[in-house]
Specification:
The chain has about 180 residues and is an all-alpha fold. The protein has one domain (about 15-170): Up-down Bundle (Four Helix Bundle (Hemerythrin (Met), subunit A)). Helix content is about 80%, strand content about 0%. The protein is built from five helices and no strands. It has helices at about 15-40, 45-80, 85-120, 130-155, 160-170. Helix 2 (about 45-80) packs antiparallel against helix 5 and helix 3 (about 85-120) packs antiparallel against helix 4. The protein is elongated and about 55 Å long. The two termini are about 25 Å apart.
Amino acid sequence: MNLFDTPAGFDDPIGMWMGCHRRIEKQLKTLAKLPAHLADKGVDADASNAALAVLRYFEKAAPHHHEDEDLDLFPLLENRIPPGAELEQFRALRARLEDDHGRMAPAWAKIRKPLQAIADGMARSMDAADIAALQAIYDTHIPAEEGAIPGLVKRHCSAADLEALGRSMAARRGVAFPA
């Protein structure tokens, strides 16, 4: 029994990848609470700290996560799934997920500036509709990924593939792969 919520490490790249989804969901929940907080209390220390935490995650960790997928995980699966119906299904899913990544960028851009101002302690409002638009993308994106990718990895990737994936993920973040 694990009494602590210890995230998976780079030696478990799929566990780490799924852990990123949980952190994205946590940051989106914080973001969704921000408009009501601002309306009730204005830009206080809690609002600034929340805005800063969301910014940090979506400016650094989330792009790494998408690069993990677009540069490593999806190409790996593309090369490992044998030709046939499963590969065609994966290709359709990959196209949809990469399209989602493209839609996330402008949705995030609408939120970023006011969020940065709030993080800096300036009075700004947040448009709940803009936040909901970003949330809506993730609400379908994460379940689509988690519904297919782990099973595909389990069926088609070797231990060496997973180690290479983990090493690439660690290198992208500038950290050492565990010994």
